[in-house]
Amino acid sequence: MRCRTVKEPGENPKDRIGETKPPLHLIPAAAEIAESVVMALGARKYGAFNWRHTNIRASIYIAAARRHLAQWFDGEDSDSESGVSHLAHARACLGILLDAIATGHVVDDRPPAGAATELIKRFTKTD
């Protein structure tokens, strides 16, 4: 049964507090579900939350995410091994990397800072 729709927000004190928290309801369910399927495949293959037991190298997960994005952008919708969207695989790679950073389980093996940010600013059209 669905909740009754209220046209005007009430004065519930939880509303004011809730509005200050991260808006997790804005993450599209389709993206979350597809990513969870990939995460379940990874859990079976490598162990659930394996990146919290052993540090991971950032470059490995960035390279994997970029490969999945390149394959998707080049016209292959789904990973040939899993049958799941390359986009979901890229999300999973980045999700693991974000979690590893947040929990202190990442080896930051990025190269020294380069000019990417400056180049993007320089070549962004601002007509």
Protein model, in words:
The protein is mainly alpha-helical and 127 residues long. It has a domain at 28-109. Helices cover 52% and strands 3% of the residues. The protein is built from five helices and two strands; from the N terminus they run H-H-E-H-H-E-H. The chain has a two-stranded parallel sheet. The longest helix is centred in the N-terminal third of the chain and has 18 residues, at 29-46. It is extended, with a radius of gyration of 19 Å. The relative contact order is 0.13. The model has no long low-confidence stretch (mean pLDDT 94).
Low-pLDDT segments: none
Biggest sheet, strands in spatial order? 1-2
Rounded Rg: 19 Å
> Helical segment tally?
5
Largest sheet: 2 strands, parallel
Q: What is the subunit organization of this protein?
A: single chain
What is the number of beta strands? Answer: 2
List the helices and strands and how they pair.
Layout: H1 13-18, H2 29-46, E1 56-57, H3 58-73, H4 86-103, E2 106-107, H5 116-123
Parallel strand pairs: 1-2
Quick structural gist:
The chain is mainly alpha-helical and about 130 residues long. The chain contains five helices and two strands, in the order H-H-E-H-H-E-H.
Protein traits:
single chain; 5 helices; 2 strands; 127 residues
